[in-house]
Each structure stands twice: as C-alpha cells, then as structure tokens.
Amino acid sequence: MNPSPFAQPYPTRRTVLRAAVAAGATLPLLSACVTGGKDDKPASAAGAKSATNPLGVKEDAALEVVIFKGGYGDDYAKKAEGLYTQKYPKATIDHKGIQKVGEALQPRFVANTPPDVVDNTGAGRLDLAALVGAKQLSSLSELLDAPSFDDPAVKFKDTLLPGVVEDGTFDGAPLVLNFTYTAWGIWYSKPLFASKGWTYPKTWDEMIALCATIKAAGIAPWTYQGKYPEYMNDPLLSMAAKTGGADLIKAVDNLQPNAWKADGLKAAAEAFAELAAKGYIMTGSEALSHTEAQAAWCQGKAAFIPSGSWLEAEQKDVAPKGFDMVMGAVPARTGSDKFGAAAIQAASSESFIVPSKAKNIAGGLEYLRILFSKQSARSFAESAGTLPAIAGATDGLTLSSGLGSTRDAVNAAGKEAFTYRFRTWYAPLAKAVDDATGELINKRATPAEWADRIQKAADALAKDSSVKKYTR
Amino acid sequence: MKHGRLRFLIGALLPALVLHVVFVLSPYGQAFYLSLTDWTGVAGEAHFVGAGNYARLGGDSLFLDAVRNNAVMLICVPLVTIALGLFLASMLHLGGRSGRSSIRGAGAYQIVYFFPQLLSLVIVAVLWQFVYNPTNGLLNGALRAVGLDGLARSWLAEPKLALPAIMAVLVWSSVGFYMVLFSAAIDGIPKELFEAALLDGAGSWATFRRVTLPLVRDTVQVSFVYLGITALDGFAVVQIMTVGPGGPDGATEVIGLSLYRAAFFYGKFGYASAMGVTLFFATLTFAVLALRSGRKERLELS
C-alpha cells in the first residue's frame, strides 16, 4: 500500500476497509454461534404411564411432526395424526410436509430445538450416522418393548418385518425406525417373457444361457441405470451374499481385512464382468440416468433391469399397459450357496427418528406406535404402492403385479432376507464400491482390480480414527 | 465541520458495513474456524482438531482428482473461451475494409451468440445431457446422420471424454457473453488506428495482432479472471450431467463436488470447510497472479 501523501483527519475508504478486515479477523471468536447450542437436555413433556398409555404421553403436550413429502405424499402421516388426536384430544399437532428435510432441520438440531418426530428421508436428508454420532437421537427401546397399538398382547417390535430393528440399531442402541420395506432384485416384464417362452433363471448359468437367447431375439438382455452404478451393486452384492452367507456380509460390514477378496465376492464380480464381456448389457447404458434406462427397459429395448421394489411406482406413468413388471430373486452363483435360492436383499427405509432434544419425546414415540399400527400401514400400502415394514400389513389386499411379486419374494425369503449395513455406516466406502463397480461393468477394471481397490478403501476407512466404527 | 463529516460518513457506511460483516465476512470467518474442527453439521458442538483436516486433504485421492481436474479446466476453459470470443468478435468487425466496420447482420449474430448466457446454467446442463445421450442424443445422431457412426461415443461415460465434454459445455455457455464484451472493447478502439494500419498495408491478421489485441488486452485479462473462477467451480454442470456424479471414477470430480459430498453426505462439515478454504485461497491466488501479470504497460488512448 502506498503511504498517504497527506494526513487524513477523517476515515478514508481505505481505513474503513482496514477496520472491516480487522473486524472480520476477530470473527472466528464470535463464530461460536454456529455451534453455540448448549448440550443441556431440556426436560421433555411426560405424563403418567398406564396400560392404555404405556409410553407416558402428556395428554395436552403439543406434538410437532415433520414428514418428507416425496413420492408417497404425507396423507398417511396425517391419518396417523388423526388417530393420535382421537386418543389425546387435548394435544395439538403441528404437521409439516416438506421436501428438503436436511436444509430445514439442520439449524434446528444445532440450536437444540428439533421437532418431536422426523421422517428423515429424501435426497436432502440428514446423515444418520452424523446424527447418531452427535447423540441427537432418542433411544427407541421403550417403544420397541411397548405393547403394539392393535393388540396389547403383542410387543411392538414383534409386529415388524425381519431386519427392521437391526436396520435402525447403532452400537446396540435402537435409534431409527424405518417405515417402508424395500426388496432388491432383477425386474422383467412377465407378459414379454411368457410370449417368448422364457423362464426366469434360478442359477447364473441359466441366466447366461438365457441372455444368449434374448440377444439372439434382437433384445438387449440387460440394461442398468448407468449414471448411478450403485444400481448394479445390488444384484452383484446380493449374489455374493447368497454364496457366502451371513459371514461374508458381516466381514464386509465389520471392515475385516480381505473381506472384499472372499470367494463369494470374487465369483459375483466375475459373473458381472462376464455379462459385460459377452455384450449382454445394452450399449449406451453406462451413460443413461435411471429414468432413461428404465424408460428404455419399459419400451422393451432390454429384458432385465436391476432395481429395488420402488421401481413399479416410479414407472407408473412410463410402463405401457399390460407391461406387468415383476421382480425375481438374484440367481444363485454356485450349487453350494449358503443362502437358499429365494433369499433376497431387503431392508427397511423411510427413517423415522425422535430427536433426543425434542420437547415431547413420549408423544413422538406414541406417534410412531400409532403410525406403525396395522390400520395405518394398510392404508399406506394401498395409497403408496409400497410394502410397509409391518408384518402381514398387506395380507388380503389385492396388489399390483410388481408389489405383489415383491410381497411374494419377501414371504418366500422368510428369514433369509439380508442386507449390508456399510452403505449407511460408511458413506465414503459406498462411494468407492459404486465407482469400482462402474469400472468393472464397463470393462475398465478386472474382477481382481475391483476387489483390490475396494479393499484398499475399506482398509483406509478401518484405519481412519476420525470415523466412528460400528459392528454387527 | 470535520467532526460532522465523520459522523455523516459513519452514518452512511455503518449499515452497509454491518450487513456486509454479518452476511459476508462472518460466514467466511466461520468457515475458516470450522475448517479447524470436526464439526458434523448436526452437533451442537465442534472439537478443535488443528490442521488435521488440511493434512487429510493431501491423502484424499478423490480430492486430488478434483484438484487435477480443476487445474485442467483452469487452463482450458479460459483459453478456449477467450480465443473463440476474440475470434468471433473480430470476425464481426473485420468484415469491412476499414478493419472495424461491422459485417452485415452483426447485431443479429451477437444476439444469437448471446442466447446461452440467458439460460440458467442448470438448464444448460440438462439440455446438454440430452445432447450427449449415447443412444438418441443430438450429437451422436448428427454423427450417424453424416455417416460417421464410428465417432459416436458415450460422451459422458468414457473417462477420457467426460471432462472435455463438460468443458465444452462451460465454453459454450460463456463464449457468447465474452464475444459481446470483446466486441464492445473493439468498438472502443479509435478508428484512426485501424485506418493507419490499413494505410501501412497491414492485412487482417496483422491488424488483429498488432492493433486490436494489444488494445483489448485489459478486457481479456479481466475475462481471464472471471473465466478462471468459473473453471475453479464447475459444480453445477458436473453435479447434473456426469456419471456418479463426478465420474466415471473421478474423471470429472471437481473441488466443489467433493466439498458438497463431504458436507452433506458424509456429515463432515469441518473437512468440507477445509476444502472450501483451500479453494478460496486457490481462487484468490489465481486472481491476484492473473491481474498482476499484465500490469506492465497501459496504453493511453486519445
């Protein structure tokens, strides 16, 4: 800076700016306001516990419910709120149906004034592991052990489908309750297969043989949502899990050394590399978004597509009449698989949480007890076209082709419904697996390289002391 | 008198200054502070971890990919955009014999070239995503229509092509604006200089190199800074268009995307802030260097 040629008795632009910089420099001290929330736990409203009020809800305590208003809407949540006010007429419910849950709630969590129940779902949701790490979630064990809303003789947790409690358990503490149940598999059009005389393969050898037939008929055997390679991960990892059983899944989730080099994973990676090498994946799939790939599949350009059970609802307006999509379990890779042929990857989603600093925790838990009742779950299944995470909720309902096939697959799998947890626990590892699978499917990585690079990422994560570790 | 002046100055400046400090400087300050903590974004407290976040950046291979890609973009995007912008601007002006009079319909060309600037970058990205679609996209369709089937590609899914494809979109979306900017700068050059060049027997190229270019140099320099900052960002286009996004396999990762993922998907706001602070200093350094480099000669026009 040039020295001023003459003395200035009043502030110049420059001195003012200098003062502003000085003020800016002191700000880190003031910046405590980002993280200034106190950790004192405010007293949460509570009432007397009784047989009809097992969670001790304070009758006139207000309840604030925040619901992700996505594909399922939020009417199902409002219905449950209606049941809640029926039971507690003095309570007022503040309902918010929003899309960007994270954006709206992050400041409230930081300020320790969160709502009482949150449906933490959608693209803009808050990272669950981060919430858990910051001790922002209430334990749900009291709710799990409470009698269910429909039948006081049955405990709440016994009304849930297999895996739902585990899906929401972090370090032994149940903190999250998922409302919907998603199964993953390989989808095809039933009428198309019937007209061509194709049967859905039970083993991978049959799959490869069928792919040759399909290709000869002028249809691409497979397509996938290329922009998001994780879609192809699901059948690949399902196949590996079926071969290696629960031990393989555990080793992967627990970040054990060389877990990704297990025979089951190697064989599955080779299977999908073969699919790519033989040209059984529709050309151009690798650059298609999920909507584009799924549209191409609905137009009959490809026979198979991997996806979760939301596919039917997502394709509602795209699938032609009589397309009648159904989901099949991922074919078995070997004759000596640890899981049966009907085993599927299934997990619950649509995560409901009760913040630990909520004003009305008991009310939040009670709301979940009502939401997860059979009556509420049934009306959800009918309006949303998705399986709720409650056992037998859809029994006796007439379901569409895709949802019916999902329910049948879930029933057929029974206890052999499995899921990997590393995606929720370690988002960076999930990203590494996605990238690696994208390279594998596009023939830029061999199965061995695929396993190597994922193992490297898993090892790095295992060594990283800044990441909270979970075990199962 | 002087006293009253001081009071007036403070009264006039203070409100604006307070707003600036609260809404601009303090978030900056907070970001600097958060980059030294392990804040998760949802916790009420953050623990000080010193320079740990910065140390980790060096070992984060995806972040290094991002730095590499941003560096490539920093070199290519401004150079190509400015070259094209200058080319188009001088084409519009060099049509006439005086070296400056416009060619017929120059105004119409300017308007057409300016169109992309009117579209939001998000819309541009969505449109180009369709153009690059490997099966029914405009680009491959055009190639196939003229019999160049062999050149049709999965533009965004091939690691070698994805970044150039993204840079092409950035260039396309900004070249019109810079053409108009350079046009205006050329309009500001005194006519006599072109006439003198013409009398001396200078051709079009010589006129451009010896007269036009040196006289629009300042404008080019400022453009370079603006474009460089655009290239150091690139988040919106990458996030919307690319495989992954940021892929395939990190081929189009940019710092902004790494930052976004770390903050909003991994719950590492502290680490993300460290990336942001790094990007801030990279941008600042670049801008200072770019503006310093051309300070030597400044021509006085009549």
Automatic annotation (TrEMBL), chain A:
Gene3D superfamilies: Periplasmic binding protein-like II (3.40.190.10). Transmembrane segments: none annotated. The keyword Signal applies. GO terms for cellular component: cell envelope. It holds the Pfam family SBP_bac_1. Keywords: Signal, Transport. InterPro entries: Bact_solute-bd_prot1, Chitin_NgcE, SBP, TAT_signal. It is found in: Cell envelope. It comes from the Bacteria. Belongs to the bacterial solute-binding protein 1 family. This is Carbohydrate ABC transporter, N-acetylglucosamine/diacetylchitobiose-binding protein.
From TrEMBL, chain B:
It comes from the Bacteria. Pfam families: BPD_transp_1 (PF00528). Its main location: membrane. GO terms for cellular component: plasma membrane. The chain crosses the membrane at residues 71-94, 106-131, 161-181, 219-241, 269-291. Gene3D superfamilies: MetI-like. Residues 67-290 form the ABC transmembrane type-1 domain. Belongs to the binding-protein-dependent transport system permease family. This is Sugar ABC transporter permease. It comes from Dactylosporangium siamense.
